[in-house]
Specification:
9 helices, 235 residues, 9% strand, single chain, 5 strands, alpha+beta, five-stranded mixed beta sheet, Glutathione S-transferase Yfyf (Class Pi), Chain A, domain 2, Glutaredoxin
């Protein structure tokens, strides 16, 4: 396991169980949050369709899915599963780290945006899965996907207009909402989605964070081909 971002103290130690960095957008969200905000954790990767996954997923994930945050020993400590639940647990453990905005209304709005994406955008998520290694210009676009992209960009613009105070991110400083939308920004690059200047600037800010640069660098080194996550390619 790789130790990440040792700048805040935690007891018991945290371990984040994740999937492939090239594909797993849900794994990316808590990883990016913790890394960018300096929350210390160990990383345990279970690559999809691997022997390691088959052998260990039942012990490391109560749901058979990733990500999972373990407090204490993975498999015998305390697990929190589902990306949004993990973000909330991190906020409880590190209330001053900036997982959510400090202002109450900004925090409520950030949570609303995350909940909206978590529960919706089915067309965008299905037609344009995260695939950092690949380039599929124009693939996956439809009227339904375009409508969801327009809705999302409107949410981004409204949040920045109201809460960013001129900062690069939705609420000024980087927070969990920005981590949540970083895999979406990656999708927009993979599929060469045309964005307006403001949305494109926010996309670039997300992809330029220290955490996302590290995640992308690791994703580009992966060689596994997972057919379920590759609707536009063959091995």
């Amino acid at each position: 396991m790789q130790r990440i971002a040792p700048s805040l103290n935690t007891s018991p130690p945290l371990t984040l169980v994740i999937g492939n960095k090239n594909y797993s957008s849900w794994s990316a969200r808590p990883w990016l949050t913790m890394t960018e905000l300096g929350i210390p954790f160990a990383e345990r990767m279970l690559k999809f369709d691997s022997e390691d996954w088959a052998r260990n997923i039942d012990a490391l994930s109560p749901t058979g899915l990733v990500p999972v945050l373990w407090e204490g020993e993975p498999g015998s400590g305390f697990p929190t599963f589902d990306t949004v639940a993990i973000l909330e647990r991190l906020h409880e453990l590190f209330p001053e780290a900036g997982v959510w905005p400090h202002d109450g209304r900004a925090r409520a709005h950030a949570r609303s945006l995350v909940a909206d994406f978590h529960a919706g955008y089915a067309h965008l998520r299905a037609a344009m899965p995260m695939n950092i290694r690949s380039s599929h210009p124009g693939k996956g676009m439809s009227r339904e996907v375009a409508d969801e992209i327009q809705k999302l960009c409107t949410h981004w613009r409204n949040a920045r207009d109201r809460f960013s105070s001129g900062g690069r991110f939705l609420f000024g400083d980087f927070c969990a909402a920005d981590a949540f939308f970083t895999p979406v920004a990656s999708r927009f690059v993979t599929h060469a989605v045309a964005l307006g200047p403001e949305a494109a600037g926010y996309r670039d800010a997300l992809l330029g964070t220290r955490a996302m640069r590290a995640w992308t660098e690791a994703a580009l080194l992966e060689t596994e081909f997972v057919p379920m996550d590759e609707p536009y390619a063959t091995a």
